[in-house]
């Protein structure tokens, strides 16, 4: 146990996190922990008393997101590429559970960097999964996406058994990795769980304005003209804090309930069309919006979140409707004044120099 770990709450005490193999609090390696979801998840885990190791290569030059927690008790950072076996070995040292968030995330960035996307989201992630047993990892949580459902009939709610219809390289790689894990459940000791997460919204230390709710909110709060494509297409949304809560819920559930299971993460109430989202913002701010038909993104899906609710007791706590006025105030209070000049920090637009397509 390091000096920092000794400052964590006592493992095994009432209300504290489970004891890990070190005899101290369980340690979670969050791969991609410096990103939008990871920044919130890591802080939530630390606040609960877990030890956390972040493995991240700051793909968008966004090390700023971890500055404030570098010296937190229980926190360790491994700055490196998940595709390197030596980096993975260093990051998994003393770790009990692994959460794999790191990927090229989103349709546009995966289209822009197809080779890098396959290399990280498939080859690198598969090699990481293969290393888990060697390091005696107990739980593995993979963040997949509801984008896997792609295109659904408006009247049908997609559930975990619905057929998958990935419409982008991003979703193809997520489906590919899901199938890779599910295809070898019996040959590994680790307990894996696959989460198909709704499109995220909410505030994070690594804010992303390339995500629909956040993007619409920033533009409308600033009264910048906004073009909205295919206004009647449905999409489910999930707050970053709820995503973190769902991941922790899986880590803390009986393995029999989560081993080899797929769960959608979000809430039925946060299924919205783009026009409905715009309506939410227009309740609070008057802004110029133009609706444009036949955009490049054909995705249309509404999703059921009944399984995670009934099997694990997970209920989302945050709604789009509550977040909308918060985001408008945050933008109008000047929090994101540098979002245009520091564009790569605030979204997945361009990978930093020096990241090789393949290793
Ligand atoms: N944001 C969403 O709307 C959303 C929706 C559904 C699912 N998800 C899933 O949640 C996860 C996190 O998404 P996010 O929005 O935080 O994305 P993000 O792009 O903000 O974070 C990804 C992180 O992974 C890191 N990373 C990428 N390649 C790496 C590599 N080779 N080695 C080490 N680190 C690497 C990046 O530096 C970044 O910090 C992803 O798996 C994504 O598919 C996100």
TrEMBL record:
Record region (Disordered): 1-22
Domain of life: Bacteria
Alphabetical list of SUPFAM superfamilies matching this protein: NAD(P)-binding Rossmann-fold domains (SSF51735)
Transmembrane regions listed in the UniProt entry: none
Signal peptide start and end residues: none
InterPro entries: Epimerase_deHydtase, Lipid_A_modif_metabolic_enz, NAD(P)-bd_dom_sf
Segments forming domain NAD-dependent epimerase/dehydratase: 28-266
Name by which UniProt lists this protein: NAD-dependent epimerase/dehydratase family protein
Gene source species: Pyruvatibacter mobilis
Phylogenetic placement of the source organism: Bacteria, Pseudomonadati, Pseudomonadota, Alphaproteobacteria, Hyphomicrobiales
